[in-house]
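---------- Forwarded message ----------

FYI, see the Polyisoprenoid-binding protein record below. Original note from H. follows.
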Amino acid sequence: MKSSFFLLSLTALTFASVVPHPATAQVVTAPEQVQSGTYNVEPGHTQVGFSVLHFGFTNYQGVFSDVSGTLDLNDKNPAASHLSVSIPVGSVQTTSAKLTEELKGDQWFNAAQYPNATFESTSVRRTGKADAIVTGNLTLHGVTKPETLKVHFIGAGVNALDKKYTAGFEATGTIKRSDFGVKMYVPYVSDAVQLRIAGAFEKQD
């Protein structure tokens, strides 16, 4: 019994020494302390969430993943920063397997014909200490339209697990899906689509 307890304690101490506690991570939350440079999207912790009003009853949510792209970040002159991302439409997920497959079909996103949605920034305007308005061209379902995102800087620092310098942001916005030719069930399923994006970016050497 004592030997088992000793082994468990030793295992716990070893694990604790290998995996750092999140509180020990050196994260800065002041934008002026972020390192300028070129960043790649870290797809494992980047999500593009969306929400629509479903028949007036619920705000139904889904998510896209496997995002790729780059962020050229200029902390001294945010207006000179540039964002370019690609979102595989076939990565869409909801809590309904049937609906998930329907969304990939030709009545909705038509992932076979239009496999990727893209966003290319055209301007960055700082609106607060940690906030900015990012305007760019969104291409979805074969249609390109200018759209605007409200972006909030969350934090940056060396990831305690993979040792890579990472910067994180949250973005929100609203688009009209009919602008992109995705009109199924409008207005019963709302034309307005609310976006909430968690963006993680790893600095390149």
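H. also flagged this: Confidence is low (pLDDT under 50) at residues 1-24.
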